[in-house]
Amino acid sequence: MIVPIILAGGAGTRLWPLSRELHPKQVLALAGKHTMIQETLARLDGMEDVAAPIVICNESHRFMIAEQMRERGIVPGAIILEPMGKNTAPAVAVAALHTARQDTDPTLLILPADHHIGQPERFRQVVAAGQVLAAKGRLVTFGIVPTAPETGYGYIKQGPALDALSSQTKGYAIEAFVEKPDRATAEKYLASGAYLWNSGMFLFNAAVLLKEMRRLVPAMVAACENALAAGREDLDFFRLDRDAFAVCPADSIDYAVMEKTALGAMLPLDAGWNDLGSWEALWDAGEKDANDNVTRGDTLLHDVTRSVVHAGHRLVAAVGVDRHIVVETADAVFVCPRERAQDVKHLVAQLRLQQRSESERHRMVYRPWGTVDSLVASERFEVKRLVVRPEARISKQQHNHRAEHWIVVRGTAMVQRGAEEFILREDESTYIPIGTPHRLANPGKIPLEIIEVRTGSYLEEDDIARFEDDYGR
Question: Are residues 217 and 109 in the same domain?
Answer without folding.
Answer: yes
